[in-house]
Amino acid sequence: MTGASNLYPTRELQARDAAHHIHPFTDTKSLNAEGSRIITGAKGVWLTDSDGNRYLDGMAGLWCCQVGHGRDEIADAVSQQMRELDYYNTFFKTSHPPVIALSEKLAELSPPQFNRVFFTSSGSEANDTVFRMVRTYWDRMGKPDRKIIIGRWNGYHGSTLAGTSLGGMKGMHEQGDLPVPGVRHIAQPYWFGEGGDMSPDEFGIWAARELEREIDAAGADKVAAFIAEPIQGAGGVIIPPDTYWPEVARICKERDILLVADEVICGFGRLGTWFGSQYYGFEPDLMPIAKGLSSGYLPIGGVLVSDRVGAAFVDKDGDFNHGYTYSGHPACCAAALANLEIMQREKLVERVADDIGPYLQARWKALGDHPLVGEARMVGLVGALELVPVKGDRSRTFENVGTVGNLCRDLSFDNGLVMRAVRDSMIISPPLVLTHEEADELVARAHKTLDQTYAALKRDGRIAA
Ligand code: PMP
After folding, report:
1. 43: CA distance to ligand 1 center in Å?
2. Does residue 409 contact residue 420 with C-beta atoms inside 8 Å?
3. Distance (Å) from CA 64 to ligand 1 centroid
């Protein structure tokens, strides 16, 4: 047992972890040989491990901790809610004050076409809900042939069957024989890696028209929906060219295809707008949400349902045979409400748009001058550095893709900064409360890490000396 203060030596915790705990997305055998890093505390943007080391949490946990760690206000709200009504379901004609208040709050914060929400405990469950909802929508609209859902290669929509299927991670599809039938994938708008000789704007149009080609090949009357993240997060912070989203929106509108913006990462201020689709100026029909909704303090997600889709569920007779024991869990709703109240009171979304966003972006983009960096990109407070063997040549990648990224990530940890590696790019998504001084610290540590990675690669002959 560990309480608020850790009393156990790191080695002992690692041994118990290795003996009994299977970690997500992990090679358990090699982790157990190495030993996990044990995080014991967090405050603001800082994490502490079991040896007392401090790390700047450049990933806001897992893209979720918008308001920073250790907010008493959220802990108090949850504690109070648990004492009043710990749990009750929302299935059998019952409801409760926190779920009502949060539903109303989400309708207020989201774009005008969204007035309803279906709650889940995670982003994956939100996308499983999307999957069943879009197919049921078309059934109820008298078009049961509209069943195909189109996603994108290298998109991420979660780890459940529908989430994995809608996502385009081949390594995930291989495990469990996925995707399920009726899901197709198109190219991603990843100009740096896949744009070839096209300009970013030309490539954005090309990538959007992949959707048009796929829909027209399948027959528009067979296609239910297109799902995509406004900016792909887990795929490596793929920021689409400006031409991409307007063209996608046009294609969906002309063919009457439901447009699903997966806002699990981009929602709740990450891009300096409440939702990522607002940053890009398009109007989705459904928006799966999670993460920043509660800043990760308790697990809660959901699907924001537009009036168009809602009409098929609210104005028509018949049960929607779908739901989770913890849909609208009172304590999780209380955490989300307290979190959103902090975000509004401290104007965190505006802060990302006007203050800390531009401040960090300028400094992050300057890392693009480093000899190891092919591109430094950032929107709001989510960014990436593409590590390359030959600066200025986008066509060249390192051999054994991923090894340089992992090396850089490990060095970054040693330098007290959490950056995540995706292939050979480094990504960050810090809490929205990051101060200017902390932003300077983040960039200084990233710079040092790049220098050390570069030196190690030269030493090993993986980069020309
Ligand atoms: N969608 C997106 C865009 C995500 O980034 C994630 C999680 N990283 C999910 C869905 C799945 O969310 P969860 O892990 O809460 O199931």
Report:
1. 24
2. yes
3. 10
Name the β-bridge partners of 55.
47
Asked if the structure places residue 2 within a domain, the reply is no
- Residue 5: partners with Cβ closer than 8 Å, 6 or more residues away: 40
Q: CA separation (Å) from 41 to 55, 285, 439?
A: 11, 39, 21
Sorted by sequence, the CB contacts under 8 Å of residue 396 that are 6+ apart come out as 388, 389, 390
CA dihedral of 120, 123, 124, 126, whole degrees rounded to 10: 50
b/e code 122-137 from CB counts within 10 Å (16+ = b):
bbbbbbbbbbebbbbb
What's 257's domain CATH number?
A: 3.40.640.10
- Burial (CB < 10 A; 0-12, 13-18, 19+), residue 368, is middle
Pocket of ligand 1 (CB under 6 A): 122-124, 127, 156-158, 163, 229, 233-234, 262, 264-265, 290, 301
Q: Read off the pLDDT of residues 415-439 as tens digits, 9 standing for 90 and up.
A: 999 999 999 999 999 999 999 999 9
CB 143 within 8 A of CB 308: no
254 lies in the same domain as 161: yes
How do residues 19-56 score in pLDDT, each as one tens digit?
999 999 999 999 999 999 999 999 999 999 999 999 99
Give tens-digit pLDDT for 118-164: 999 999 999 999 999 999 999 999 999 999 999 999 999 999 999 99
Residues 465 and 424: beta-carbon distance below 8 Å: no
* Nearest CA-CA partner of 42 in 57, 28, 31, 30: 57
Residue 45 forms part of a structural domain: yes
For residue 406, what are the domain limits? Answer: 10-67+349-459
Q: Are 426 and 377 in contact (CB under 8 A)?
A: no
Torsion sign over Cα 139, 144, 148, 150: negative
Decide: 259 and 252 in contact? Cβ < 8 Å: yes
Bridge partners for 301 per DSSP: 120
Q: Which residue's CA is the nearest one to ligand 1's atom 13? A: 123
What span, in angstroms and rounded, lies between the C-alpha atoms of 388 and 392?
Answer: 9
Please, which residues bridge with residue 302 across strands?
119, 289
In a domain, 159, yes or no: yes
Terminal Cα distance for the chain, rounded: 51
> To 10 degrees, the CA torsion angle through 72, 75, 79, 80?
60
| Distance from the alpha carbon of residue 156 to the mean position of ligand 1, in angstroms | 7
User: 372 and 316 in one domain?
Assistant: no
pTM of the model: 0.98
